[in-house]
Design a protein that fits this description.
Helix content is about 20%, strand content about 35%. By secondary structure, the chain is α+β, with helices and mostly antiparallel strands. The protein has a 4-stranded antiparallel beta sheet. The two termini are about 25 Å apart.
């Protein structure tokens, strides 16, 4: 299938409506009927201001970016972007064309990934 890879970038400690932004974004997408999304934490990064961020063993969480990614159809991507715009959040995003599907999707899988 053809669709969109939509990624949103934020700092892991950023809040919106008393909730971490990445959790808020995933919850809003779920309420919209989006079939899935994932949040990924970086181990090192720098952004537009050139400040380098890196996780160290003794540091508290908070300064590294989290990427929330959705693989959706184009209409769902438009709806997600509009939802973020209307929330008032300022957020960097990337929207790319994607081809997606399920390999061997007709077989049922056990929770451990074994064919049944």
């Amino acid at each position: 299938m053809k669709g969109t890879s939509l990624k949103f970038y934020m700092h892991e400690n950023r809040n919106h409506q008393h909730t971490l932004v990445y959790e808020w974004l995933l919850e809003q997408a779920k309420k919209m009927g989006i079939h899935g999304g994932s949040a990924f934490k970086a181990i090192a990064s720098f952004g537009r201001h050139g400040i380098f961020h890196e996780e160290h063993f003794f540091e508290l969480a908070g300064d590294l970016p989290v990427v929330v990614e959705f693989i959706v159809n184009d209409d769902e991507a438009d709806r997600l972007l509009e939802m973020v715009r209307s929330s008032g959040l300022t957020m960097f995003y990337v929207r790319l064309p994607a081809e997606y599907g399920v390999i061997n999707g007709e077989k049922s899988m056990s929770p451990r990934g074994e064919n049944s």
